[in-house]
Records
---
Amino acid sequence: MSTTETTYVIPEKRVVTTKPRFSDKVFRGVVTGGGLSSLVILGLIFGFLLYQGFDIFKSQGLAFITSSRWDITYDEAGNVLSTEFGLAAMLIGTILCASIAVLIAVPISVGTSLYLSFYAPEWLKKPMVTIIDLMAAFPSILFGIWAYFILMPSGAYWAKLLNHYLGFLPFFKNELRYFESSPFIASLILAVMIIPIITSISREVFAQAPLDRIQAAYALGATRWAMIRAVVIPHGRNGVIGGAMLGLGRAMGETVAVYTVLNIVFTINWQILFGTGGNVASLILLKFGEASAYEIKGLMAAGLVLFVLTLIVNFASDLLVRSFGSKGK
Amino acid sequence: MTTTNAFQDIKPQRPWQASTKDKLISSAIFLTSVALAYGVVLATGLSGKLGMFTSFVFIFIVITAGRSYLQFGSALAKDSLVKILVAVGTFLTLIPIASILFEVFSKGYKGLYPGLFLRDMSLNSPNDPANVGGLGHAILGTLILVAIALDD
């Protein structure tokens, strides 16, 4: 009888580490770089605009936002004698047009997306979704030309109707009886442009409404509207607000379509039916072609103001979406 | 020997679907509303397509919602009201698209010819008809721009 000696080999301790492998590091670096690059580009744009427009901000001060004149005088040698840059009319026009456009577009878009999600028969749904997405891809110059030739006559007629029946309201006054090229028509074309965006975002949000709750609502005897009000709208409210804010951002930055339609004048105009208005982006397009080197600095400063305005709207929309943070009943 | 399926003669019933009678009634309501709207346009100051459309929507809502209120009560009246409003919203969304597509095709079809995508405008003068020269340069430029942007 022999005793077998069994030797137990204790394996080395396995090293558990959180240190990533080399390939992981490379991948992480590439992905982080890609993610940060958009932020870097945004920062560079901001820096460029600030650098170009700094002189203007220094010489105009707060009047750049509060006054509404855009004058630049030269002596005979072409040197700049005096300048007066003010964006008040343009800023007010931008905000006015964009908010009216959102006011018009949101009910229509929510209606459309509700119809597409819950009412439309299957054979109609797919082609309509395709068509509305197609509309989101139309180039804005097409909208501009269409608005100028087709929408403008009808829009001026609707403006006259509004003025005739609701003219006692200060917004709808129009003493000079000039109805073409008004902020109202610019708002209409902006609304047409942002309807597809808000519609497709709302449709996607409504499609994510929990199916079990929808079926529970139907099982309890709810009509379709009762189901929508109890389940879909509480669930989708955030998304609709987010879509509306995205539309607002697009409407504020829209350049060519507004430029084609709107009559850009440096006077603050609150009468939306009267044919003068302002728009920062269109102002830049209007002046850029024949601007002197100094005036281009002014336009860059205007671009910076628009940039900041858009950023503010985006942050505000984030806050708004977060404050409505409930996810349905 | 033939086997017969005991269930073959039984048609599935779909009580939630609109019957022929329901469809007839709703189309009758639709036609009545169109006729009444036309009457309103003739009789009152409302005129044109806008007047016709508004009065039609109003009359259609009143008849449909009123009918479901009398038949089934307020919940279904609200339901049918929302159904109409939602459909009107969709219609309003589709009008601009239809108009843009119609205008683009009806005004642009004259310029369509096979060389449009291949030739450029280098030999054109301002008074040439639409089917001389083409968009080749613009299409090539767009392709180059998009290719570089996507490649980056």
---
Amino acid sequence: MESLKDYLHTMRSCNLCGQCKWILGPKMRGWRYAEICPIHQRFKFDAYSGQGLINIAQEILEGRLKYEDELIRLIYSCLTCGACDVNCKSIRDMEVMDTILALRAKCVEDGRGPLPEHRAIAQQIEQYHNPFGLPHSLRFDWLPPGTRISADSSIAYFAGCSSAYKHPEIAVNNVNLLNASGMEFKVLGEEEICCGVSLWRTGQIDSFVKTAEHNLDTFKKCGVKTLITGCAECFGTFRGGYPRFVNMDIEVLHITQVVQNALSTGRLKPKPKPNLKVTYHDPCFLGRLSEKYIPWQGEIQAFGLHVPPKTWRRGTFGVYESPREILRSIPGIELVEMPRNAENAFCCGGGGGVPSVNPDFTNWVAAERIEEAQSTGATALVSSCPFCLDSFNAAIKATRSHLRYYDLSELIMQAI
Amino acid sequence: VWALSLPQHIYKILEDIVGPEYISDKECILAAYRHPGPASQQRPAGFAAVILPGSAEETQKIVKICIRYGLKYAATTSLLSLERMQPGSVLLNLQRMDRILEINSEDRFAIIEPGVRHVQLKPELLLKGLNYPTASVGPGASVLANFIASGDHHMQHGTSRVNRYLLGLEWISPSGELLKMGSLAHGAGWFCPEGPGPSLRGLIKGFHGWGGSFGIVTKIAIGLDVWKGPPVIPGEGHSPNFQVRFPADRHKVFIFKFPTLDKVRDTMLEMGKAEIGSAVLKFFYATEAALTTESANDFWERWNSGLYQKELPRALWVYLATNTPEEFQYEERVMQDIVRENEGQPVDESIRKKYDDNLDHMFIIVSFLQRVLRLGGGWMAVKLGGDSVSQMFEVAKVIPEFINEFIEKKQIIDAPFNFQIIPMEYGHLAHIELLIFYDLNSPDWPKNLQSFLQRSAETDIRHGFHAASPAGDMEKISPLYSNFYSWNKKIREAFNP
């Protein structure tokens, strides 16, 4: 199910209940930080929400709403963070996020999307294999000499574009952690290219499928059975995006899962750190959007019966505990939770192709999250995604926050 | 084209009131306000514009502009009932007016604006040892809208309808005057909904939010109860598998089955006389199965087992929630005596356990009520009425006269006993709802629903019951009850600017 018309059941089923905009009841903590949809919180009109976007999708599909520039900008204002989707699915059998993605894909099919900035990124990926337009030959400059690489291993570390080019310290910490935990792995070297997340999330499906096919061929050619990545976006794309279009029969792990396992089996032993009160931000693609996509083809019969039964992705099994377990395992670190956490985490503002077209909005979203992190009394904000790092560091600077941002790999490396 | 467009000079005047960021007449923005609601048979007519006032003063100015230029307008927060609007209307969405203006712990009231949601107000109150009964809506619904609507809820046996918790309020009349009502009108504060003279609450109290009420309520005070539970909801697990566990020595759900509906009624009345139980109700059984399932398939698997139909058609749910273990033990002993005297038996433990795991947060924080919409999106409370407990059971007994043909045609789910009767204020009054599920993906649903409503209303009229559908034929029902509809129309005409 990927075409917009496949989601008519979702569109027709919407009852305007508003759960796509508000935190779940059992998670409610107060007046502030009760909204979970960034575009709704910022722009207020209900068109800016999961509900509004699926209403729009239905009207476009049924020919009642015509394309216009403002409509396209509205459709591409969404961060595709999936908070609406998980909150809706706590009570309903609807596919809000997938409908929004299918709506974007339809815009592209109809020649009205994506936005020019997204096309430019697609061209960079096509030409340079990364969204930044940097030479592919520099992709593995980050790899430190002395890293123990096992060319015969079926486990590969996938750095991802952002870590490889913009935040090499994350990639370095990750391979050092793998070495320290005694895990044998290899890297893909020049064979590694972009995972394609920005193509997928902006509806450029043909390009995304080409990228996915290329990567899958590479993984097979290199004998990869397990991928480890330190980038939440790559992780969520391999697990939630690739299986829609290619036969992704490769296990995908995030570095936090590997490290947690190493800690629990005693292969990594953290030493005490000076006291530090931290709060953890769940990246969308590591948390609620990271469940494996299992293709479903079937019929939705009367009264919602799915035949054959469908495996739903409701955000239940996101990677929530591994990063928290890691933080709790470091003596001296005190972990406090933000009001919006785990599947209800508020986005960093870095997704859905938004930073390239509306950086002000990205900054606004990140600043909102920084304020929430500060409200916990923490002095540090920890996460595990290079895109979150960019958003938060910019917001910390802009808001002159006292918080310091850490990638989780940095904290654990300091502790072992 | 859906909307009749707003003349540019009027748009400009409205824009000057709220600023350009908070008004729009763009089709893509308006698209989010013309999707049918859950029980509607038609799409809302196209609005000319939507406007988001930030204060009562801005709202009043907008109303006056609408009156001056002859524009129809309506206010909403939770987006329901918009299908009653006329084409070309201006929609005031009050969600920016979202302040909690005061929480008064000493006199136990809170003053709020329309945009405050349950999920925002309730946790602030729990922290202060306060709470209020939550009407049967999802956590994202407007608290104010609930309190000015009928406000029935599952715990009204031990409390009351939420509209009985309404205190002073601020109201913009249909002619654009900003008025204070109740004790507030006399400078006496927010503590009381009535001032000297006749009550005016009926003017603002709609049956379905603003559907049927007048003007726009911009602030209300609501009465609060004492809360002796935990200050923060003790939620565990991840969506949708939440568990909320309140102290087990003070909170428990019991479900008993009875040989007849009369026995259910008698047990309910006796529990009211004994003044025990936070919630005592003859509950919807198909609805409640849907509430505790994780998917439509999960529902069907459970429903098709036949266990619910065997155990629950004549069952009574009792939720004991007390402030101390001693109170709990007392209430449980009294409850067991009453149940025994009326030949009640516990239902299958697997069912009770499912509710025990879920109903704490269902009853107290109403966290997932929208699951009733899971089976196809179509849902309607066909009967909504209030009278004595005994009378509500009489209304229930005639449901089989019209419901079975719709079940046989598979237009609604096979759940002929899917009604609830909830006593209020320990049995002094009661409320009935017959809830049906239909599938919005079926092309015939509007016709089938209309037919169902008609048959339900005809049955009620035939038996002289007033518990007809709100969408029933008021002209026919009205003569049975002092021609209330004629009076209603006269009042409406008097206020029409």
